[in-house]
User: Fold this.
Amino acid sequence: MRIAIMGSGGVGGYVGVRLAAAGEDVTFIARGAHLAAIRERGLRIESALGDLTLSPAAATDDPATVGPVDLVIFAVKLYDTEAAAEAARALIGPATGVVTLQNGVDSVAVLSSVLGAGHVIGGVAHIASTIAAPGLIRHTGTLARLQVGELEGGHSERVAALSEALDRAGVDHQVSDDIARDIWAKMVFLATFSGLTALTRLPIGPIREDPETRALYEAGLTEALAVAHARGIALPADFVARTLTRTDQLPAAMKSSLLHDLENGRRLELPWLSGAIVRMGAELGIATPIHGFIATALKLHAEGAG
Assistant:
């Protein structure tokens, strides 16, 4: 299978290296120092699930040099979605699938409008991984699980082919019959988790252990769940309790990508996480004071250090 990784950072880089090592024809779309390092030394993963170096690794900053592929794994930062989708046109053939592994809930609509809804496959990535240095992806903990599925549900040959490739690569995954629900399940968790870790500049351990910050976390989950329900998403009524239980099982040192970006002076995905919960809550008449505070307190950092 010919695969292009559009956005070769923590998620795209991790998945792409695993797929390439299993024999898939993978090209990484990257830029800057990360691209230069991949070209010079390959792309390396540090992970409790097994370190891996892919060298040489095919990499470029120009999708037009790659041409149409069977599958695009779309994993750019949310603020780059529109521009990257336009650039990805060069990768699209009549049968190309584009699976988005981005955060938030907006990417499916954006990709559908630019590339055509028939090409888009929904996806969710449950993994804590970042670019630790140019050419190096560092995976924290042992959770590295994908969910993929057709937007209208059901099964398809292209999702089955992706699932088989992920099996060969040893990547834990699930083919979902309701990917919109799964995308929202991550959104409810991630908007709250990322917002509070970035707001406090702390990993999840201290936040969940302190009664008052734990209460803030629970309230943020409850707000986001109310927005999901108002959008017609069928998440269970006990979703918050289940999420708290799962949060207690996370590594205490786990940070969000939002916090990593804040610490490194990079632009934040804030408008598409807590900011989106606030925006949709206002549209639906649902109060979102926790996410409103997160979005307001962090907004002066949202464009990065410049």
User: Anything to note?
Assistant: The radius of gyration is 19 Å.
